[in-house]
Amino acid sequence: MKTVIVGAGLSGLTLAERILSSDTGEQVTVLEREDAPGGLARSFHVDGFDFDIGPHRFHTFNTEVDSYLREILADCFIRISRKSSVHMAGKYRNWPLTLASVAGLPFPVLWKSFLDLFSKPDIPDIKSFADFIRSRYGDNLYNFFFSGYTRKFTGIDAEKLHVDWAQAGVNRAVIDNRVKADSLLSLVKGMLLPKPVETKFYYPSHGGIQTFCNLQCERIQAAGGELHLSTRVKGISVENHSVSGVVLDNGKTVHADRVFWTAPITILYPETELTFINTLVANVALHSEVSRNDYQWCYFGHEDLIFSRLTIPRNFRADCVPAGRDSVIAEITCNSESEFWKDPKIVRERLTKDLKSVGAIKGDDIIFIDWQRIPETYPVYSLDYKKRLSSINVPQGLFLTGRSGSFWYNNMDHSIAQALSIVQGSEFRQDFWNER
Ligand SMILES: Cc1cc2nc3c(=O)[nH]c(=O)nc-3n(C[C@H](O)[C@H](O)[C@H](O)COP(=O)(O)OP(=O)(O)OC[C@H]3O[C@@H](n4cnc5c(N)ncnc54)[C@H](O)[C@@H]3O)c2cc1C
Prior knowledge:
Blueprint: E1 2-6, H1 10-21, E2 27-31, E3 43-46, E4 49-52, H2 63-73, E5 77-81, E6 84-88, E7 91-95, H3 99-102, H4 107-118, H5 129-154, H6 163-174, H7 184-192, E8 200-204, H8 211-222, E9 226-228, E10 233-239, E11 242-248, E12 253-255, E13 258-261, H9 265-268, E14 276-286, E15 297-300, E16 309-311, E17 326-334, H10 339-342, H11 348-357, E18 366-379, H12 385-390, E19 398-400, H13 402-405, H14 412-423
Parallel strand pairs: 1-2, 1-13, 2-9, 6-15, 13-19
Antiparallel strand pairs: 3-4, 5-8, 6-7, 10-11, 11-12, 14-17, 14-18, 15-16, 16-17
Helix pairs in contact: 1-8, 1-14, 4-5, 5-6
The structure holds flavin-adenine dinucleotide.
Residues 6-12, 31-34, 39-41, 53-58, 232-233, 262-264, 267, 279, 331, 377, 402-404, 410-413, 415 line the site of flavin-adenine dinucleotide.
């Protein structure tokens, strides 16, 4: 049996590592487009600074995923308490909101949200992101934060996004299902009767989040698996309705009895016209420490600000920056047509101004900006995305998995859980994207 895995992100590497460790004698080859493994959980090391692709906090309640993670990381991890922020009405506020953090919100916003508690819109058939948020949080918070944030983040009006985008997004933002933030009432309850829920997440004790994938690669190679970096796959070959290999960018075909495809689904099925959002990541290194609150990441809804989220690496691990220095990661979501995707440097001035305006940097503090263009970071859940997905006909022996391969707005733990269940032989569901 020859298995080819396309993509060396968490899904592809977990599949490869587990298949090889089960000692079935199978030949496993992983093909990766980039010159490093890790996919969206990749890290960049520049002049003593460690940057991840935005923030990457690893948290799970799945005991199998938890023990797999500990097995791979062995003792190379630390545990950190989750701290998130949201920037509203010119100030940093804890997320989920606390009584203290809403105290300074403009009175009309507070008053209208209070009224929304008793008269949220009654939307019987919830189809869109807008329907979901308005029915859960009320019109006021929707208009005040969610609608603008979403338009900025996705480039699409909230009415045109599927309700799944809201459900997945709220879960992804909180990462701990004990923290209740899924409605206006639960936000208010959490403010008035705060329950001390401390979410601790894992982070590697050296390097960035990519350390996890590097350790997986070492095991794969030690077990005889092949890993080819800088190898772009452009399609699959099919004979008699079964997959027979993958076709590389250079036209060569690599034979395979089965293929796990974790690269974007749109490479194989462009006719679905499914789309992804790209993220331009600005890794900003700073001469000296900036005093800010201790959030790991903060959301910015204001449409005038170019970034939608900022991450502070030293709040993950102090030595992500050299002693006395600081850094910040800004995420700017866009599509491939945008001017700054083509030439990131044109937004440097605007980025610097916006970072100063929210107190994330001071004066002329920047040592360098390392720009990273990360394609296909988020699947776009248009209103008809499920119909488009269900139109796909998958040949035998091809398995669409992982975040990009199954068009699934997921987290690292979900990619690992999915891979573990595939290797354990649980019936493989091609429509895994429904399980959120
Ligand atoms: C900004 C950001 C922040 C995030 N924060 C968190 C967080 O805090 N916690 C968390 O749990 N999750 C987080 N995630 C999600 C997490 O990164 C993903 O769920 C996970 O990394 C997905 O792994 P994957 O292997 O399924 O997919 P991917 O990482 O997308 O892997 C697919 C791989 O296929 C490769 N590939 C693509 N095209 C080709 C081709 N043509 N040929 C060969 N190879 C190809 C890619 O380079 C990539 O390596 C975040 C994601 C983003 C974008």
